[in-house]
Every structure is written in structure tokens, then in C-alpha cells.
Amino acid sequence: MIRLGDYNTLRIERSTSVGLFLQDDEGTEILLPNKYVPDDFKIDSDITVFCYLDNSERPVATTLTPYIVRDGFGFLKVAEVSAYGAFLDWGLEKHLLVPFREQSQRMEEGKKYLVYCYMDEESQRLTGSSKLDKVLANQNPEYQANTEVDLMVYRKTPLGWEVIVDNKFKGLIFDSDIFQPISIGDKLKGFVKKVREDHKIDISLQPIGAKMLEPTAKMILDKLQQHNGFLPLHDKSTPEEIQDQLHLSKKAFKKGVGILYRQRKIIIQDDGIRLI
Prior knowledge:
mainly beta, CATH 2.40.50.140, five-stranded antiparallel β-sheet
């Protein structure tokens, strides 16, 4: 079955004057227009394409890469606003509609918003929504501490930054755990600190506890190599100086430096640390 709003791997059935007709295992066909046909195609070979509805509401395939897929999230720019809602640029010829009823705030042309893409059951059209709280329900998130997860930055709160975890759940990075600039729409790697009893997920951008040491040491080592073997950071450096240069807390910096020193990779001087 061809899944609209997502990537599909289909068999090239035949070539026509308007493009290639592709077929799934059930015999359903979809057109790949000539402008997307690769030069080296072969009949009966497989091709991976994105499938959606064109401007005439007909299923069509493309080799373009969209900025968002069905049941996923993306940070998209409003191309225009009409009487039906906002039309967002998602990297394809036909824009993605976010009806007014699906806007958490009235969208404005030229601005970017974090949205969720879904198949509207009533119209059978791919639709966007910026009302993300109804999608991110946090029902039984099963994570162990230090599990690495994919993040998308959602919004700023008084406590920190809310993030979308693995495209399913809502998490929070406390301000005290942030040592680098981040903004809405950023895609990051993170680590689960804990899952609370109310199913809220606390996230860190760095590994927790003992697992934090080796990656932190490697990052400091990489920075040293990028800066001719010297960094003007030491025990008396302020947390702000360390954060500006390394995006680390002072505690993490000292642990990483300790590992490198014990491994005899650096020497510690009054004015900073230097590669041996």
C-alpha cells in the first residue's frame, strides 16, 4: 500500500510520455513525473520516492526531499495566508495547509512555525497543525537513564526548553543543563536524565554521570587540536568563559581535563591547558 506523506520504495512498472509509473506490491500505481525521473532508471528496478497529493489532489511521486513527513514535525516557513489558513513551504511544489482551526496562534506570512503533519481523515489530505500538545501525550514513555534520543526544540518555558523526544514525546531541558545556544526547530542529540512518575521526561544534552566523562574529554581534546594545542581555560576560569568556548559546565570541564591529564595527553599551566 502506498503511504501518502511518506517515503515509499516502489517498482518501476513502465515509462510513458508523462513520466514513470511506479507500482507497489499490491499493484497500486503512482506517477513519477518526467522532471523527477533519474537518467539511469531501469524498468522493474526499485526506486525510493516521496508520495503526496499534487495541486489537483492526485497522488504523485517525487524525488524531492520534503522538510517534514507524515506523523512527523518540522520548522516551516509560511509562504502565504489565505481564507482557508496558512500555506507552508515544506520543500515541495504544493504547499502544506495549516487550517486556522489547527493554529495555536494566528500564523503570519514569512514567519516560521513548528508544525505536525498528519492525514486529515475527513478530507483525506495531508494537513499541518501547530497545536502540538494534543499530539505529544507522553503515554508510558519507557526510557532508561542515559538513553540517547533524537530531539527537536519546541518552545521556551520559564524552566528551560521543551523538546520533542524521538518524534513522540515531550521533554524538558532545564536552563541549568544548557551550555550552548539553542533555538526553536533545532535538531539535537540528547540523553534521558529521568522519566518522572507523571511521565514527564527530563533531558540533558550531555551524557549523565560516568558516561559523561569520556565524550567530554574527547570534545576538549578536539578543541585543543583545533586551536593549535592550547586553550586559555583553567581552574580559575569563570563558568561563563568555559561555556562560551566549550558549551560545557565548569564541573564537566574539570572532569574532562582530569581524564586528559591522567592519560598524559595535556599539561595544566597557569594560563590554560596545552597538548603534550
